[in-house]
Specification:
With 64 residues, the chain is of the alpha+beta class. The protein is 34% helix and 36% strand. β3 and β4 form a beta hairpin.
Length: 64
């Protein structure tokens, strides 16, 4: 079992979420589960502010 971890960044929470949504759609069904799931409210809640870059960051892990 493995997976892929990373982060998505955006100038706004909406921008970061839309980038995450496109990324998840791009990988298709390769990964069995996603953390966080593709849920707008939950993703926005999990984002953290990076004061060094002025961006919202969403950390994710895709499980195989």
């Amino acid at each position: 079992m493995g997976g892929h971890s990373g982060e998505i960044r955006g100038k706004s929470k909406l921008e970061a979420y839309l980038k995450y949504e496109r990324f998840v759609e791009g990988v298709g069904e390769i990964f069995e589960s996603r953390n966080p799931p593709k849920n707008k409210k939950l993703c926005k809640k999990l984002m953290v502010w990076d004061s060094d870059t002025g961006e919202w960051v969403l950390y994710y892990h895709l499980h195989t």
